[in-house]
Amino acid sequence: MNEIRPSRPNNLDAFWMPYSDNKYFKGTPRLLARAEGMHYWTADGQEILDGTAGLWCCNAGHGRREITEAIQKQAAVMDFAPTFQLGHPIAFEAASRVAEMTPEGLDHVFFVNSGSEAADTALKIALAWQKARGQAQRVRLVGRERGYHGVGFGGMSVGGIGPNRKQFGAQLPYVDHLPHTHLPAQNRFCRGLPEHGAHLADALENLVALHGDTIAAVIVEPVAGSTGVLVPPKGYLEQLRKLCTKHGILLIFDEVITGFGRIGANFGAERLGVTPDIMTMAKGLTNAAVPMGAVATSAEVHDTIVNGTPAGIELFHGYTYSGHPLASAAAIATLELHRAEDLPGRARAMEPYFEDAAHAMRDVPGVIDVRNIGLVAGIELEPRKGAPTARALDVFRWCFDHGVLTRVTGDIVALSPPLIVEKPHVDRLFGTLADAIRAVPA
């Protein structure tokens, strides 16, 4: 067990916390001090069952010795090396390991540092590809309502979650959106892929009719996670793939959440049977031990850009830490863990039990919908009158204070535990959540 026991900080003011109610937190702090396996511990020693894999990212559980040792070993050999006009072996090895895991044909890997950077990188690659093939007029990017693609200006612009956008005014130009796929009247309490909604992909035809041949790419999450677990309707992604191919539009899958076993396969593209032209990833790539993201592209995309440039730099894009040695070491060790322990297979085997536990929540007063696929579930609560989101936040805080970490988005509680989860953990997750919903005021 990791014996490092950091002291409680005596000043909370300096850290401006992300996506947080800073005023509330610093009046009532909840601090995590240690993690191992399926659990966190607070600074006071309280054990917290991790129902969210950190932030959708610690798929192999916390404190994995293999990853820690790989980082330590690499740090002792070489802490940093640039990848602008230079290289280091471990970055190439990490890229090869990722390419072995991605769906067939997505075999070129561009390293970044986060999901946000991966989204912006994918969009820039799409624009560069269209220009390289003589389609420079294709400058329009299409996202989807309720989509989340990080917080860079590119990902925020194609994203479709209102609060992420409205505070910042102008977005990127030449952006449009497909409708979201949430149809509660037809699909409420659906297990897995909903039956209704494939026709919503046809909205892309309307955008083509409106914008002509100016659309460069469409970006969607195979399963929309941060908006509250929206699972794609049967046939929806297949139709989107068909229409993108028909109209010369690149299809980008944002697999930051669905990648690395979360829905019972290496990637959502594999589980759902649809291969995009470009795929983003992050989070589970290094089990969150070191920040890292990546973009995988087809040979057609890569070769058109690289071979279409007569000499010199082919893509004017990159980051100081692209392919960072420590992150590369963490990625290699993480992917080896996924292979050796068959974490996607474990998720698939646990899915029926997890699904049954999730849908048992429909009998809890105040639960108005349950959505699930793989080891991710969204439990939607009836909003508190006049105070949307407040009920779910109270549930989150009640759960934490009773030893379970959940995540909320709006009035939806999302559960996405590490893929090493066992049945007693599942029982406790949903049991505590049910108790919390009953305990907090409606």
Automatic annotation (TrEMBL):
GO terms for molecular function: adenosylmethionine-8-amino-7-oxononanoate transaminase activity; beta-alanine:pyruvate transaminase activity; pyridoxal phosphate binding. Gene3D superfamilies: Aspartate Aminotransferase, domain 1, Type I PLP-dependent aspartate aminotransferase-like (Major domain). Its EC number is 2.6.1.18. It is an enzyme of class 2 (transferase). GO terms for biological process: biotin biosynthetic process. InterPro entries: Aminotrans_3, Aminotrans_3_PPA_site, PyrdxlP-dep_Trfase, PyrdxlP-dep_Trfase_major, PyrdxlP-dep_Trfase_small. Keywords: Aminotransferase, Pyridoxal phosphate, Transferase. Belongs to the class-III pyridoxal-phosphate-dependent aminotransferase family. It comes from the Bacteria. It comes from Falsiroseomonas bella. This is Aspartate aminotransferase family protein. It holds the Pfam family Aminotran_3. Its cofactor is pyridoxal 5'-phosphate.
